[in-house]
Write a structure and sequence with these properties.
Elements lengths: L2 H16 L5 H17 L4 H15 L2 H4 L4 H17 L14 E6 L6 H14 L5 E5 L7 H12 L12 H14 L4 E5 L8 H14 L3 E7 L6 H12 L3 E5 L8 H10 L3 E5 L7 E3 L2 H8 L5 H11 L2 H12 L5 H13 L2 H7 L4 H10 L6 H10 L3 H5 L6 H11 L3 H22 L2 H8 L21
Parallel strand pairs: 1-3, 1-4, 2-3, 4-5, 5-6
Antiparallel strand pairs: 6-7
Amino acid sequence: MFDSLSDRLGTVFDKLTRRGALSEGDVDAALREVRQALLEADVALSVARDFIKQVRERAVGQEVVKSVTPGQMVVKIVNDALVETLGSEAVEINLNAVPPAPIMMVGLQGSGKTTTTAKLAKRLVERDKKKVLMASLDTRRPAAMEQLKVLGQQIDVPTLPIVEGQNPNDIAKRAMQSARLQGFDIILLDTAGRMHVDEALMAEVQAVHGVAQPVETLLVADSLTGQDAVNVAEQFNKRLNLTGIVLTRVDGDGRGGAALSMRAVTGCPIKLLGVGEKLDELETFHPDRIASRILGMGDVVSLVEKATENIDEAEAEKLAKKVQKGQFDMNDLLDQLRQISKMGGLDGLMAMMPGVGKLKKQMADANIDPKLIKRQEAIILSMTLEERLKPKLIHASRKKRIAAGSGTSVQEVNRLLKQFKQMSGMMKKVSKMGKKGMMRGLPGLGGAMPQVPGMQGQLPPR
């Protein structure tokens, strides 16, 4: 998300920060490019215009002119304006309500409401320890109710039993009554997708809203919607008084203009981001962190949070003991690779690292494949148990067999073995530092990230 905008702004600000003093003309020229970048990223014209006006008022003032580093000062002003446009601070789902608290999911057809409903249910159960019931009010799409039921079974969250012939209002009433009788904390109401220009369908969802009186009405919007995102958000907000927006498919959108536009036009906070297809890939929207990512400053806080969530302390302790005894093997390397995959793979980690644009270019220059981790996993899985424990056994014929079994080349197998040897040498050095040194050097035990084989020493200097 925001890849194209981030790349364009990175180029603009690189020019600015290389200069000493900045004239008003320099700032205007840079802001023209910023405006163009925003429009190309599908930011609504009115939002882009207001954003540039806001930045210009601050950027041509004495604060910048007298600054020691005027270029950096302009970048800071743009960062602050982005944070304000995106909503200043993270807004969580409102759970401070008398149970069962209804949360209503609305949006266009195909925006990902049903999957997002299941993702949110999983999050509420696991993170917030809430007892959740899901109910499908979608009587229009074939098998919509069955889809929610199947998703509920996958995440072990109950769904309202399906009764043929009921209309959405009746289902909403039955869902509320059932949730009340069974002592649920939250009832998630998954409504049918509808076009914002269809008066009959909008009246229907408005009626359901009146019956349910939801504590949260969340617009589920596909981030690929582009310029029309503003019209969609405005119309739903006018009819339902939205309390929040959930952006889906942000992993597939390199522009991200919908996020900037919808928040600015409706004043409605973006609360959640769907960052992938898996049911645990739903994240809180943090305006300050997103602004940092857009400007290539990275998102170290999210990176650390991902590490904390995905790295098992007990496993890291176990690895520390093995390293101390000089027993680091291919199984341990496989665990490291899987930790990186859990955290979103190389692409996911790169998106949160400072200087992301430059890092991606350096990866391309160094011919490092973002799918490298999957290929290396395949190589290790094609080894026998004995080979994983004793990589020194792997000679020419074994390398050919491993390459054939993993769909890779002998050169890639050689490269992984060489990198394993380098990592083993590093681990031995770390072991000599004693336990405290090891705790700092191993993932999960001091904030360090897992090692990424294939990247050590390969990137050119920044």
